[in-house]
Structure formats: structure tokens, C-alpha cells
Write a structure and sequence with these properties.
Layout (H helix, E strand, L loop, with lengths): L1 H11 L3 H12 L3 H27 L10 E9 L3 E5 L5 H13 L3 E5 L5 H13 L7 E3 L4 H8 L5 E7 L2 H13 L9 E5 L4 E5 L5 H13 L9 E7 H16 L19 H16 L3 E5 L3 E2 L5 E2 L2 E5 L5 H4 L6 E7 L3 H11 L2 E2 L1 E5 L3 H10 L6 E4 L16 E2 L10 H5 L2 E9 L15
Parallel strand pairs: 2-3, 2-5, 3-4, 5-6, 7-8, 7-15, 8-13, 12-13, 15-16
Antiparallel strand pairs: 1-18, 9-12, 10-11, 14-17
Helix pairs in contact: 1-3, 2-3, 2-5, 3-4, 8-9, 12-13
């Protein structure tokens, strides 16, 4: 644990600016988004995981009768962990390898092709903190080529994944096909996509709602698995906030990460740009929707997309159901009951990662929380559905959003250990017969 505490100290000190800058330049994050990710969150991962591990080791059998000692050993898994990282969070990329390594495992760190730069400096941080060579192994390259070798290796002991649902499901399928070839059953932990919602009741604090919509949808260009992508508003609430919402969105500055006044920057690459644009163009051509902010884009120098807001009459409109992973928020105006709109929110998407409800009516908060019980692994009341903090809101979702093993919590660490129960007897029996069988 000393090595990981050292990582935290180095990141809080001499490595802070370096890791932040590499995240800003390589992953197109503004200074604020880089700081809360690659510095603050990663420092928390290092420190909190050490605390969690200390408490895990304290979990021992409660009773050892006289003449014996019972104990539990928390072993590393038998094999290696394949840690597959996304482009959007440097902290997550590091934790995918560091969490298993903290439990004594060897990890193969496969960064996203667009986050190799920050990954390189993470490896320097690990080495300077004293992590021995061979514990975390940096493997940038083609995902399919690396994955084909790794997933077919008999010593694969686990997969720690953050990325798209499609890729995760493909990996799980491959593991299933190879299950008889592995030395042990691989532990599979994944956090994947989301179609995250904001649902407002007519009693909502309207200024707070407006701010949450903008921050939740457009921070880091909407390139968060937790980003608000669909919004359900009472018609009367929308009429009250529409003007302020549009005014605020139109005021958002977009540009280079080196200009700290820019709230938004470029999306990560051309493939992402083209995918996001396809949804915007679909909305432009549809009779069921209209674009009320943004809708423009430019890739002549960088991949820039305006914060785009779509209003739709159709609760099952394409942009209400499918993950876009960009600065696009779709709003549906409802006039049905609270219970019915909660049911609509719950059934619209296959994902269940994050979601938020806004209401001042306490009964509606209680009932909404109940109706939406399985709709989000991270559920927010009167706040945006992004910004989970290690040690406060452990992160993860279910359904098509992943295995919900909660990064930033002890539950995640327990996936990377194989417990061994040990019973030591000091007065071993020396006669096979039970005591009542002895001759008097």
C-alpha cells in the first residue's frame, strides 16, 4: 500500500501539472475537467483503495475455538488481469490497472488509442512511486489484435473494462466460448454505456434544473458515460426556463483547451465527430423533432460541435433511446402523470447507469426514487447525473451499462482477490473413533 500512497503524493505534487496537461492536450479536456479527473479523482482512487484494502484484510472469522486458529487470506487471482481503458477519464484508465495490482495481481494496461499520451506519463508515475517492473504492463495498440491474443490465453484471470457496450459484450462472448481453456473462471467487471436522464417534476427548482441540464449534457462535450442525454420536462416548466436555457447555451465558449475561458472543446476524433453529426442531421430531417440550440459543426481544424438541444414530440425518438456520446441533449415535454412518466423513463433505454430527478415535492422524490429503482446505478436528486466522487458516490450501473461493481468502493476490490480460508489445529485428533465409541 505504501507504493500507492506514494503515487497519490507524487500526483498531488510534482506530477500534477504533467498529468493534467497530457490529459488536456491528448484528450481535449479543459483545465477544470482535467483537474477533477486526472488529479483529484485519481488521488482519491489511490488513497481510498488503500483504506478499503486495509479494512478488507481486517475481515476475519469472528470465532476460533480453543485449540485452533481460523483466518482468511486474500490472495491475488491465479493469472493476469486485462485492463481495457477508455479515452475519456485518465483516473479510470489508471484505476482499471491499479485496483487489481493493489490486490497483488499482474495487470495488462490497454489504453485507448487517443489517450496513450497521458497513459505514458501514468507509467512514469507508477515507476517513480516504486512499482516493480512487470506489475502493470503498458500495451498500446490495436484493440482487436491485442484482445485476440489476451482473451485466448489460458492464464486470463480477469477483465477490468470501461468502454462501449458492444465491445464489452463481444469480449464476454469470447470468454464464454473459451471457458474450458482457462485455468480458472475469469472475473469480468465492466462499466459500459449509458443513456442518462434528467426528469423534472413541476415542483422543481427551475434555476437549478437549467444549470444541471447544461452542465450534465455539455461538460467535456458530453463525452461521459454519465452525461445527461435525454430530458423529461413538464410543458409548463419548459416554458418558464426556455429563454434562460437558450441564453446560457448560446453563451458557451468553444475552442482550444489552452484557452481556459472555453467551456467546451473539440470532440475526441473524426469517427466520434461523424457519429455525433449523423444524429444531428437525423434530427434536422425529422418531422418529430426540432433543434433549438446548436446544430452546427466544423472539422476543418479540430472536431468542434456546438452544444445541441433537440426538442421532440416522440418519447421514443432515436436520440432519446440511443447513446450518442457527444454534446447533444434531447428534451421531451410530458403532460402525463408522475408515475407514468417515471415508467416511460425506466423503459425507454436498455441502459441503467445514471439519472437525476428534480423536485421539491418530497412525496414525488420518494415515489420517483421508488419507480426508478432499477433505472440507474447512480441516482441523483436535485443534481446533475454526472460527477461521482470516490468515497462519496461509488460509480457503476447495471442492465446494458455494466456489472455495477462500483469503482471507488470496496466491492470493486473484492473482485480481484481469491479468498483462502485457513484452519490451523493445535491439538489434532489421534484416534479415528468418536469419543462415545471409546471403551470404558
Amino acid at each position: 500500500m505504501k507504493i500507492f500512497h506514494k503515487m497519490a503524493d507524487l500526483l498531488a505534487g510534482p506530477y500534477r501539472n504533467l498529468i493534467n496537461a497530457s490529459t488536456m492536450l491528448g484528450q481535449s479536456k479543459n483545465i477544470y475537467q482535467a483537474e477533477i479527473d486526472s488529479a483529484c479523482e485519481l488521488i482519491d482512487f489511490f488513497n481510498f483503495n488503500c483504506e478499503y484494502l486495509y479494512n478488507i484484510h481486517k475481515q476475519q472469522p469472528k470465532y476460533s475455538p480453543e485449540g485452533m486458529k481460523n483466518s482468511t487470506e486474500y490472495r491475488a487471482l491465479e493469472g493476469f488481469i486485462f485492463s481495457v481503458a477508455p479515452f475519456n477519464f485518465t483516473s479510470i484508465a489508471a484505476n482499471l490497472s491499479c485496483a487489481p495490482a493493489l490486490l497483488g495481481n499482474v495487470a495488462l494496461f490497454k489504453p485507448a488509442s487517443s489517450s496513450v499520451y497521458s497513459g505514458h506519463f501514468l507509467m512514469k508515475l507508477f515507476k517513480d512511486a516504486g512499482l516493480p517492473d512487470g506489475v502493470i504492463n503498458f500495451l498500446p495498440g490495436s484493440g482487436s489484435e491485442i484482445g485476440n491474443i489476451v482473451l485466448n490465453h489460458k492464464d486470463l484471470a480477469g477483465i477490468h473494462f470501461t468502454g462501449s457496450t458492444k465491445v464489452f459484450q463481444s469480449m464476454w462472448t469470447t470468454v464464454g466460448k473459451n471457458i474450458q481453456n482457462y485455468k480458472s473462471y475469469p472475473r469480468i467487471v465492466g462499466e459500459t454505456g449509458g443513456k442518462d436522464f434528467i426528469l423534472a417534476h413541476k415542483s422543481a427548482n427551475q434555476k437549478a434544473l437549467c444549470t444541471a441540464m447544461i452542465r450534465g449534457a455539455f461538460e467535456y462535450q458530453g463525452q461521459k458515460c454519465s452525461a445527461a442525454s435525454r430530458c423529461y420536462l413538464p410543458t409548463e416548466v419548459w416554458e418558464n426556463i426556455k429563454q434562460d436555457y437558450q441564453k446560457d447555451v448560446f453563451s458557451i465558449k468553444i475552442g482550444d483547451v489552452e484557452n481556459f475561458k472555453n467551456f467546451m472543446n473539440a470532440v475526441i476524433d473524426e469517427n466520434s465527430f461523424d457519429n455525433i453529426v449523423s444524429y444531428i442531421e437525423y434530427a434536422k430531417k425529422s418531422n418529430d423533432a426540432s433543434i433549438i440550440t446548436g446544430g452546427n459543426y466544423d472539422k476543418s481544424e479540430g472536431y468542434f460541435i456546438e452544444p445541441t438541444t433537440i426538442i421532440t414530440k416522440n418519447p421514443n425518438f432515436k436520440t432519446m433511446e440511443e447513446e450518442i456520446f457527444g454534446p447533444v441533449l434531447t428534451i421531451y415535454l410530458y403532460d402525463c402523470s408522475w408515475k407514468d412518466v417515471c415508467k416511460l423513463v425506466d423503459n425507454t433505454s436498455p441502459y441503467a447507469l445514471t439519472g437525476a430527478i428534480f423536485a421539491e415535492d418530497k412525496e414525488k422524490i420518494i415515489s420517483g426514487t421508488k419507480y426508478l429503482k432499477h433505472s440507474a446505478g447512480n441516482f441523483y436528486i436535485n443534481d446533475k447525473p454526472t460527477g461521482a466522487v470516490v468515497g462519496q458516490q461509488p460509480f457503476g450501473g447495471s442492465r446494458a451499462s455494466g456489472t455495477n461493481d462500483k469503482a471507488g468502493a470496496p466491492a470493486n476490490l473484492l473482485r480481484w482477490t481469491s479468498q483462502r480460508t485457513i484452519k490451523q489445529t493445535f491439538n489434532s485428533p489421534e484416534d479415528y473413533k468418536y469419543p462415545f465409541m471409546s471403551e470404558e
